[in-house]
Every structure is written in structure tokens, then in C-alpha cells.
């Protein structure tokens, strides 16, 4: 007897006895309006996290929806960011599930125990994990704690985590899939071909694949039409042959950054000579391969990489520099940044010292920082270290970081701008009006704003046409009035769309 076909109201029963809707809405980078739109579209499963900084927006959207609270399934998470793990901290943060846990076995188990106690107290209905490998779940089992209800993983045809998925399915753990539509990078021919045959959008094909694999996909969007489209999945089914075609695309862990090399090569063809990578992006080897394949001289290309807080500390950083050079297959890196300030003052200073020593040894040309607030920069000055050459921060009209920018300009620190095109969410009327006025893409308007402000913008894309468009900026200029109109959009820290940890202690 065949199982019933899923619908938008279908749910899966968790090991805790609670039911979770089969399709979730990813709230990352989304505000209350997008979440309200998702609820209107029929979503009853919202995935948020403390680090997304929008839990209040989710709560407000639910409150304003006229839906019963018990009819909506809400997930949130506590991460290791700002050292948020540990028994006492987790007890205070009982509205969180586990996310990317890099705090070590002891703190993971303490955090999990605290969440279970909060569940026993009636404050949480289900406890789960995110980005957990088999060994992480096994340590929970070995500690005699109940199995997590959910494991949330990056899951799509290019990154299928088959061994983790099988383990979860064998142990009654529901698998949630984040990045199910590859963050919009759906231009592979096989996606396009299947989408054309079913007369569907490529994203709908990927979400349907996820559902038919038995996962709970968590697509995210702030565009009303796409939110609606991502829920319109229940009147068609992929054939076994098409499922097999998508299954065959699996690249294992490499699938998480599958497009780095071709995207970098396309950027070189478009004229870019500055590539921004990082250890945590897991694509240094692909960037290095693209440089060699491009035929460009190494000295004509500027390569940046970064060490994140997990790799901070004097010895770790020195080893990390050598590891990055080995992956790039380079003799030197042009710019090495401290990726974030989350490791605390002592480790930040140790890390900076190690990078300066690697610079003195000829392994790095320039040393800089990323996501540093004024107090982080001041601690470098107080320690007697040379001023960083760069501070790379989130910068766009909605998040202008004016105190940090002013400090950097006064101290001769170049400001690089990440997220300059708002991760593609450029529907604001002011941006659209200027794009129409100048007959340009909205992305070009935002990047031009960044250039005229004196920043070094770092747009990213895997789409060839957009890569070229983002470089076509030098035959027009925004007027002072239009710059002022964009300046007026500033929302301070509330305008951030990424992690933006500039206020870390």
C-alpha cells in the first residue's frame, strides 16, 4: 500500500511525540514582513536562531497572524558565537536549539543537558541539533541522554551527507535541510532541464527532491512571489529517473562550495583581480586552482583569506597560515585577516601577533581584520602593534557602521564592504527608483554607492551574467542627491543582514 502523498499541511512525528510540518520556512535574513508572508502562504514551520537576530520578528509575525500558537512549529538555536554554550548560559537561553556547535564535547553535552531540563520544565517541546555528524550524536547516546528529535544539515543534491542521513533515519531522528535551493544558485543544466520538463521553477524541483527524500526542507526568501512558489509543491512528483539524476550530483562535503572555481574563473574573465576567500569558506584550494588555470601571473592577482575564531591563538594561527598556503599552493597570500573578534581579547592579540610574524617571514604581504569594532582596533593600538591595513565589515545603505568607518578613515585603515548588494534582496523603492533612473541593475547602484563612499566592495555571485554586471560600474556616477537618498536608509545595527559581530566583547 503506497504512503499518502504529502501536502502543505503534512507533518512528521518526532521522537518526542510532537509533530513538525514537513516544509519549513528559513527565517535567516528575513524580517517580520517576510515571515508574515510565509504564514499567509500556508507555512506552519518557521526556522530561526539567536544569531539571526530576528526572534522578536518571528514572535510578532505569529502574534499578528491570528493563528493559534499551537498550530505553528518554531525552531530556534543557540550557537557557540560569543561563547554562548555551557550549562548556565543554555539554561538562560532555553528558547534555543543547537546550531553549529564548535565548542567541544564537554560544552556540547552541558548545553544539551540544559535544554533537556528546560524541556522537562515545559519551556521547550522538542530538543534537536544542527550540523551534527554521527560522532556528535553518538556522544549524546554514550552519555545516556535522549536522542535528539531533529538534526538540521545543509542538504541538497550536491551535498547529501548520506552517512549522517542514514544514521538519523535508522535512529528515528528527523532530518531538516537548510540551503535546499542552493542559495539561488540553480543554474546547473540538469536543474534547468528537469524544471523545463515539469514546467516548474528550478527551486521547486530542488524542494520536491528534498521532500521525496524524506527531509524537511527550510527554504528562505523575502520575495513574496518566491515565498508562495516555494510552497507550491504538492501537485506534482518527480519520477524515479529524475530523482536518480539529482542523486547522482552528490559531491559530498565538496558540494557545499561547488561553484568556487568556475565562479572565480568567470570573475577573472570579467576583469576582476581581487578574490576574497577564507579558511571557513572551504574553497582556498579551488581559488588557487582557478588562479593557476586562468593563465594570469600570480603577482597580478590579489588574494585575501581569513582565520576565524575557531582557529585563533598563536600556535593555531601559525599552523593555519601554512595550511592555507598549502591549499592555495601559493608561496604567499596578499592579505590575511582575522575573520572575527569572537575569541576574546587574549586570543585576538595572540592571533594578530602570529599573523605579523608570518608577514615578517614573507608568507603574508598585508595583515588586517574583519568585523572589528572601534574597541577591538583600540586594543591593537594599546598593545603596541602596527595598525591593520584593512577592516572588512558588513556595509551597505541599511548598515553603514558610521563610527567604525570614521575611525578607520582617521587611522588610515582601508574599509572593505561585504554584503554590498544585500545578498540580492534589493527591492526597496529607493534602490529600484535609482536603478530605473540610471538604467542600471540595483546591484550596480549599490556597488557604485560603496565605491563613491570610498569603500572596497566585495560582491559575490556564481552567475556569469551577474559577475560581469557587478564589474560594469565605471561609466556612470551617482549624484550627491542620490548618494544622500541612499545614506538616509541607514538603520544602524538593526540594518545588518549577516552575523555582524562588531560589538563582541
Characterization of this structure:
The protein has 505 residues and is an alpha/beta fold. The chain folds into two domains: 11-253, Alpha-Beta Barrel (TIM Barrel), CATH 3.20.20; 255-495, TIM Barrel (Alpha-Beta Barrel). The protein is 40% helix and 13% strand. It contains 20 helices and 18 strands. The protein has helices spanning 32-41, 55-64, 87-92, 105-120, 134-142, 162-170, 189-198, 202-212, 224-231, 240-247, 260-270, 284-294, 314-328, 345-360, 374-382, 402-410, 429-438, 442-452, 464-469, 480-487; strands at 11-13, 19-21, 25-26, 45-47, 73-75, 77-78, 97-98, 129-130, 150-154, 174-178, 216-217, 274-276, 302-307, 333-338, 364-370, 390-394, 414-418, 456-457. The strands form five sheets. A seven-stranded parallel β-sheet has the order 12-13-14-15-16-17-18. The chain has a four-stranded parallel β-sheet with strand order 8-9-10-11. Strands 3-4-5 form a three-stranded parallel β-sheet, with no helix packed on it. Strand 15, helix 15 and strand 16 (390-394) form a beta-alpha-beta unit. The radius of gyration is 23 Å and the shape is globular. The chain starts with 10 loop residues before the first strand and ends in an 18-residue tail after the last helix. The model is unreliable at 95-103 (pLDDT under 50).
